[in-house]
Amino acid sequence: MKTESTADLAAQAIVLRAEERFQAHRMEIVTWTDRFFARLMVGEWLFAIALALFFSPYAWEGKTRTVHVHVWAAVFLGAAICAFPVALAIRRAGWVVTRHVIAAAQMLWSALFIHLTGGRIETHFHVFGSLGILAFYRDWPVLATATLFVAGDHLIRGLVWPESVYGIASPEWWRFLEHVFWVAFSVVFLAMSCRRSLKEMRLIAERGAHIEALSEAEWRRSSVLERVAKVSA
Amino acid sequence: MRTEWNGWLAFGVVWALTLAPGFTLLWKYKARPGEAEGAPPFWPAESRIPRREDRATLVLFAHPQCPCTRASVAELARLMAQLDDRLRAWVVILRPSDVGAEWDGSDLWQRAAEIPGVTVVRDGDGVESSRFRASTSGATVLYDTSGRLLFSGGITSARGHEGDSAGLERIRSLIRTGKADRSDAPVFGCSLRHAGRPSPAPLEETR
Lengths: 233, 207
Hints:
Strand content of chain A: under 5%
Strand order of the largest sheet of chain B: 3-2-1-4-5-6
Number of domains of chain A: 1
Oligomer: heterodimer
Radius of gyration of chain A: 26 Å
Distance between the termini of chain A: 34 Å
Strand order of the largest sheet of chain A: 1-2
Strand content of chain B: 15-25%
Structural class of chain B: alpha/beta
């Protein structure tokens, strides 16, 4: 009876240790990714300003030029997009809210880049690239937040100003679903990959906990044997 | 902890309240069309741009420094790729007399010149744009083989925004089927008006 209970306790200790190792590893990943995104967003901000200054520095009225709205948008709207997620990433890295705010902000960056590059189809790849980077978190709800932002943006703009999304004034009401479908398509597979990564992380944590427990037990046994040997000598 | 949470919540609310109007203003700017005076119903007799009599003629008026017009030129390239054999196109680029040489070598000029079936010409002091009553960069007119106006308007959906647009679709439809739901579309771009530009010709109802 006593042996069984000791075995149970040992097993429980291993489970607890595995959980701790898993959570520590996960926290390390999300914290690193939060800080990575903080740097990325500052980089995106500088890139947006450079893009606006290079491609659309001025608007013209005949021979008179004024600073183009894109430049102001890149400077001020870009700074506004960065402010909250970067502050969270610096002060509250690893917090659940931080990564969801980052996901939303990253989608806003896609929207701003699409505006700054005149709706070029190539810039829309920023959305898919961003989803791939958001998958660094290995946390599928973050991808869901990003998808909801894209869907919301398309739904609202599709109702208020459909030409900006579809090029025509009266698209079918379900048209936004076509765009969201392709985002969801990549998100589903990224989410599967996240879940698989988490399983592997858990497995690594369990193996680590086992090895730790075994080496501790071995260390204890060898200590006892050493003491017994000393006493016998 | 609660105070900190409230602080972040307030920050988040301010963030959302800053971004929503920011993006709305940007959208509004992009959706605001330029002036449109209505092109002459018949090809202006005094125009020095040659009109083809075996196919429709399209003329796009551009400000060489207007960043928004790159999208119009990109859309013209798409249009020509689809309708090259049924359309002859001209890109007429504004050149006021008292500006620097950089107005002649803009990337817009080069991009337009690279499109098959398109000829780029300089519009000294905006004389031609005035004849066609085009006052916004990106304004596009389409005339049939007899010189009758088929379409007048823009070929982008917003200011400097590539992609499908009502204007582009109407031109396609007019060339392919001879009809469209409308013969105009809003023009998005920089103003072509400047001191020294002749006043636009009055609209003539007859040729």
